[in-house]
Amino acid sequence: MYKLIVSDLDETLIDSNGHVSQENLAAISKAQELGIRFVPATGRSFNDFQHILKMTNVAQQTDQYSISYNGGVITENKDNRLLTTTAIPFPLAKKLFAIGLNHDVLIHVFTLDNIHTLRMNDNEKAYLDGHVELTFLTSESIDHLLETPIIKISFQHLDNDYLRQIETTLTPELAARFDVNYSSHRYIEFNPKGINKGNALIELMAMLNVKPEEVLAIGDNMNDRTLIQTAGTGISVANGVPELKELADYICTSTNDQSAVAEALETFIFNPKK
Fold first, then answer.
1. What's the pTM value of the predicted model, to 2 decimals?
2. Name one Pfam family in it (predicted).
């Protein structure tokens, strides 16, 4: 019997137009009626998916939880109460920011209350389409964030090979201090070493006394790798990257534009094969 459904948001639950289908919402609601918790697990900050929590009936609810910043934060949804928070040490954040400055990338610096952005471009502006609030940096410095916890840093570029090349430029010392992930076919993302969706799920399972075999997780990209490996049932949507599909227990025939989450719940919860 499943007790947790843990789902990535972008390119998994959310379609290409930024919407959640009625089929997905109905399936989540049906699972909740069976006593199964729905937990978003996303690279977004918790402020940037409150509307999704409302749609899935878990906004401002006690004993309902979210994983955000790729595992950098776990919150109880009631008042977004922080349960765990892991920040990047500021000297490391500065070094990473400097690497971004030396490459042709847009830089997002995630704090608990804001996303500080340098080099906004038209493509990223259209992609975010107003659903994420940003503060634009006016200088090539983050010194003003010295006393502010930095949870995640991401670089944006439309060429994934270019982003992967940036990862190879990290010194061994710096590479050893970060978990590096890729998402949305446009971001390379940096969290402190050991901070990822999978380890956040392990912490949440311990809090809730839930076993891996009682967890179904679904995602699409490499920042979901640890998530689907940790869950007893790990699922990739049809539009998932090949590397994730290789790790998945099940690959949906549906994409995020075809209500893949509903397919997963139908297959494993509502009408499982005997």
1. 0.94
2. Hydrolase_3
